[in-house]
Structures are given as C-alpha cells and as structure tokens.
Amino acid sequence: MDQPLADVRLDAPVTISSNDSVRTVVAKMQDEKLxxxxxMNGDRVEGIFTERDVLSRCMTEAFDWDQPIGATxxxxxxxxxxxxxxxxxxxxxxxxxxxxxxxxVQDGRVVGLARLGTLIGQFTEAYPExxxxxxxxxxxxxxxxxxG
Length: 148
Hints:
The protein is an alpha/beta fold. Helices cover 33% and strands 22% of the residues. It has one domain: Roll (CBS-domain). The protein has six helices and seven strands, in the order E-H-E-E-H-H-E-E-H-E-E-H-H. The strands form two sheets. The protein has a four-stranded mixed β-sheet. It is globular.
C-alpha cells in the first residue's frame, strides 16, 4: 500500500480527441469494454469521459449524440495523481471522490490509469492468504459459537 504508483502495474489509458462525437466515443467504449477514456491535448489531460458521464449528461431526450464530446459531455481538467504518490493515497482519493479511475501523471504527462479494481486485484495477488481468509463481515462478532 505504501508502494509508489510508478512501481505498480497501471492500465494504459485510451485517448480520444475532444472533437470526436459523443456517439463515436460511446461506441468505442462499448466495443473495447472501457469504463472511461481520456481526452488529450498533446501530453496534457484535457478531460475524462466515463460511464457515469454517459448516464448523468447524455441521457436526456434532447441530447445531441453527434456533437463534439468536448462541448458538454466531457469532464474538464479531471483530478489526477502524481506517479510518486502511494497506492494507498490513490485508493483513498478514489474512495473519497467516488472515482473508479484516476489518471496518473509524471512530469506533466499521463503515464497510466489507476483503476480501483486493478489496484485491489494487485493487493489480493500480493497477499492472497490475508485477503482470501478474511471473514465476509470482518467486524461481525458472533454472540454464540456456530456449529453442532
């Protein structure tokens, strides 16, 4: 958990242009089974578009699916995290902000995408006995012993 993000396996970000149509981007997300894409301007993250954005911004009757994604659907200047920050900090940020993905930057450019599921999976791989032997509800206290 104290390991820097630069030292763990990060997902490769899929990038789009903010001029791509919303329809094209959503089709790409469906085809490639993506939960988010990054709009880039050179090496700089211009915005992020997620499944949540589809549901919260695009699902109105009058929504124009052929407009550029940068017009209204893109989350501009998304929160990022530095590659020298720890895995624990990334997970805490994602939990606090209710994010599932967080762009990781180093020297001003994106080096990967920290995904909550991927980080938890890596933690489980590193400590399988500790994780797999956790009771379903770790804080539950039994009033009397189970069994016959």
